[in-house]
Design goal:
Blueprint: H1 2-69, H2 72-99
């Protein structure tokens, strides 16, 4: 009987130590997971920031390009101006031909 009690106590002690070690590791793992979550939040914030910066850059680039080539309404005005000039040149040419 004494041997059985000793074995049972030894098994209980061993189980308590194992449970304690598992609990300690679980605590460390939970702490590590919190650190990972915080790091992930930081990365997500940076990604959102980069997306916003990219949108701003693309918009700025498109605006700059549109300013260089002219906005559609300005293009229409330029086309009308060119058409008026062509008509005026054509009429002037006809007048010069008639005079000569």
């Amino acid at each position: 009987m004494l041997k059985e009690e000793f074995e049972q106590r030894w098994v209980r002690k061993s189980l308590r130590e194992t449970i304690s070690a598992v609990d300690e590791r679980r605590g460390k793992l939970e702490g590590s997971m919190e650190n990972v979550k915080e790091a992930l939040d930081g990365v997500e914030d940076r990604i959102d920031n980069w997306k916003e910066q990219s949108k701003d850059y693309v918009k700025m680039s498109l605006d700059s390009t549109m300013d260089k080539i002219g906005r559609p309404d300005r293009l229409d005005q330029k086309l009308v101006g060119v058409s008026v000039q062509r008509v005026a040149l054509h009429l002037l040419d006809r007048e010069l031909v008639r005079i000569n």
